[in-house]
Amino acid sequence: MQEQLKLDNQLCFRLYTAARLITQAYHPLLSGIGLTYPQYLVMMVLWEQDAQPVNDIAKKLYLETNTVTPLLKRMEAEGFISRSKGKADARQVIVKLTPKGRKLESQASCIPFQLGQAVACRSITPETAPGLYEMLDDLIHTLSSAGR
């Protein structure tokens, strides 16, 4: 077998596995507040800045709007967000937090710490994390630019 085709030599497999396992680690933390991981991502975007167009949310999450829209419909049915037509452009859909969605922010504030405790990694420390974030941001930027 060729070395470059071994599973252990694939960066993409390591990234995929790490992402899947981290998402699994979030599950018990998020289920306590009634969110799935994709919903949590949307909520973080809205907690950072409320009242955003669907297109902007999708762009920040590196997703297509046709992926985000069904997710938003479920979140609206659960009472976390509301969706309305844009005032300047009726084709635009604006997503806003409801009081129930705003209340979740305080409930979710401990989740990053709890996740950090659950997946404590010796090689990722407060000193090394910024370098890791920078490398991953560079990889994300490179890959997202290549896909256009």
The shape is: globular
Helix amount, in percent?
55-70%
Stated plainly, the CATH topology is called Arc Repressor Mutant, subunit A
What would you call the structural class?
mainly alpha
Discrete helix count: 7
Instruction: Give the tally of structural domains.
Output: 1
Weakly predicted, low-confidence segments: none
In the CATH classification, which architecture applies? Orthogonal Bundle
Q: What is the CATH homologous superfamily assignment?
A: Winged helix-like DNA-binding domain superfamily/Winged helix DNA-binding domain
Q: Estimate the mean pLDDT confidence.
A: 91
The count of strands amounts to 3
Q: Helix and strand string, N-terminal first?
A: HHEHHEEHHH
Q: What is the chains' assembly state?
A: single chain
Can you tell me the CATH class?
Mainly Alpha
Strand content: 5-15%
**Backbone CA Rg:** 18 Å
Distance between the termini: 34 Å
Structure description:
The chain has a single domain (8-146), classed as Orthogonal Bundle (Arc Repressor Mutant, subunit A). It contains seven helices and three strands; from the N terminus they run ααβααββααα. It has helices at 11-31, 37-48, 54-60, 65-77, 99-108, 111-118, 129-146; strands spanning 52-53, 81-85, 93-97. A hairpin with a 7-residue loop joins strand 2 and strand 3 (93-97). Helix 1 (11-31) packs across helix 6 (111-118) and helix 3 (54-60) packs across helix 4 (65-77). The chain is globular, with a radius of gyration of 18 Å. The chain starts with 10 loop residues before the first helix and ends with a helix.
